[in-house]
Amino acid sequence: xxDINYDDMLHKDTIFLDIDAKxxxxxxxxxGKRLEQIGYAKxxxxxxxxxxxxxxxTGLVTKFLPIALPHVDPENINKPFxxxxxxxxxxxxxxxxxxxxxxxxYFFFLGITDSSHQVVLLQKFMQLLRDKEFADELTSKxxxxxxxxxxxxxxxx
Length: 157
Known about the structure:
Blueprint: H1 6-9, E1 10-19, H2 24-37, H3 45-55, E2 59-61, E3 66-68, E4 81-94, E5 101-111, H4 117-129, H5 132-140, H6 144-155
Parallel strand pairs: 1-4, 3-5
Antiparallel strand pairs: 2-3, 4-5
């Protein structure tokens, strides 16, 4: 199992707490455009996100907070990132594994350049989301700087 350097994946400029999308397609377009503009994602990223989400939904209903972890194959990524995203209101997503409907306004877009990291990252999120304090703190962050410091503390230690 490969160790992940979370320092390489967490960036202040990939925290978007001001997204206002009506559905997942709009969300993917807004976030995808930003990630392309700052050089993290390739121009194939948005289409790849939509396609992958239809085939393999990424919504997770956890004990304290429903989230989604959209991601694509490494060839659509320029450099690794975890993009923390908050939408203005909950939108419909399908759950990972069951394809059941759910709603969330919190997303972590995973820019994975090494496919062996995917499972490790998903496990890390599952572990964090079992913690009420993590969920409460995550949802209390309103500016990117605070969110960045919080995520760095949780992931990097």
